[in-house]
Amino acid sequence: MRRAHHPATEDVALTEVMAALSDPVRIGLLRVLADGGERGWGELRAPVAKSTLSHHLRVLRDAGVTRTRQEGTRCYVRLRRADLEARFPGLISAVLAAADADEVGSGVGLAAEAS
């Protein structure tokens, strides 16, 4: 896997973040990652094919919403909450509150929750 590109905090654009958060699966991923933990890609479950899940994770990373770390053949992802809060104060909290209220992305979770 080639090294993932992560935009610097000052280069994260509001339009790109909003576009990345315009999909229910990506909102679901945001909700899963909102606890601040780092998750292995294999832990994430969504009602889409693995290749589509990979696409959604790339969109979030390219927009500056998440940071991906590779360790050998495994990839881990976490929410860049502090960076997003510094750039767009209150945005992520507002999106998460609205998503929780409307249950947007509720089909996305962790493998451990599926049991």
UniProtKB/TrEMBL annotation:
GO terms for molecular function: DNA binding; DNA-binding transcription factor activity. Keywords: DNA-binding, Transcription, Transcription regulation. Gene3D superfamilies: Winged helix-like DNA-binding domain superfamily/Winged helix DNA-binding domain. InterPro entries: ArsR-like_HTH (IPR011991), HTH_ArsR_DNA-bd_dom (IPR001845), HTH_MetalResp_TranReg (IPR051081), WH-like_DNA-bd_sf (IPR036388), WH_DNA-bd_sf (IPR036390). Residues 6-99 form the HTH arsR-type domain. It comes from the Bacteria. NCBIfam families: HTH_metalloreg (NF033788). This is Metalloregulator ArsR/SmtB family transcription factor. The lineage of its organism: Bacteria, Bacillati, Actinomycetota, Actinomycetes, Streptosporangiales.
